[in-house]
């Protein structure tokens, strides 16, 4: 592995791939830079001189401006690099790109999943319990525990993959768009193909009434949904047990069958990012996304505030004028959301990101958008909506890991690909594949991580791509992720309005 990497030929900084001492001569491109100070692993150093206010470039994109003169070999971080982000913008339309992707395994792109009645494909065969309101969240968990005990033999035999409750604190004391968002998100989850059967568990007096929630579920998915109002039931535990048992009996008859890669809908997510995320893990997802989109599958990108500063590169790939207009409006709407709260649009990255070598939101965004590669942008999806068009979808959701990953699942993702440089154990309703950006994390947290993308720094990228594709096809076909093995399954709903 080299000591440092210049990601793009136009970059004015390089990234240390290990901690490097001051005075070291580092070969970058066709020249050598002598470091004037120690450079921590994952952090940047200048390879060209910068004057005050000069653009600093990484990934071929500006990541901010120099707040002081910077000489070659100097550490570039929060002390001499600041954001150049502004508020809402008028974006210029570009031309959609066409890219077939660089992962090429046409001989091995078959996975084994469940084809549902509505035509969608599932990677799991589960029963989900969704409370309409937080008041019955613990009851939902109780129902799921008791049902898993009753059906332990079927689960052990692989006839069903589990009976899972997804508690949340919302559904009451909400108004307007806030309540509508909760309802849309739960309706999207209820329609998810991985849920062979869904029990909507209500209380009875909540704002999020069962009838309105059922009406929000796409008609093609309603036949698998059952509901119960706890206040109206005599013994809600006995009544729900009968409902669950009937759904389990039907789900257990399903069989996995060979399916094409195009049947996959995949969520793209990063969390706990570091200086390696944009060098290893996110580009790996980008190459896969290109291939998936070219095959007719659907990668979904979200975390809208974490594309601020890199949005033009994404907008340039819009497949038509309408998609461009919708995507540009979504980005500006999120910026306005910040500005209306009196907050700067650059209020990111997190303390963990900064410690890992990421300085500005532009830098974080330039690394984050690599998860979509160069796949053409074909659709824009509202929060709680469904991604139904092949090609890259841009989904409305914030950067918060739990909120955005839940939104990806509700949009139809049957796998969530989650890159991380600092690690997190949490998983979500769809199988959540954790991809480490660096070897230290993959080694120390092997019980969290499913794939080590840092291998791309040591060997042929093509081999890493093949290994990654094999891993994803195995997980799609039923192999458990680390989060699934650890029982790490949760949802979070975007609460952005008044609470009564």
TrEMBL record:
One of its GO terms (biological process) is D-galacturonate catabolic process. InterPro entries: GD_AH_C, GD_AH_second, SAF, SAF_UxaA/GarD, UxaA_altronate/galactarate_dh. SMART domains: SAF (SM00858). Pfam families: GD_AH_C (PF20629), GD_AH_second (PF04295), SAF (PF08666). One of its GO terms (molecular function) is lyase activity. Residues 11-82 form the SAF domain. Keywords: Lyase. It comes from the Bacteria. Belongs to the UxaA family. This is D-altronate dehydratase. It comes from Blastomonas natatoria.
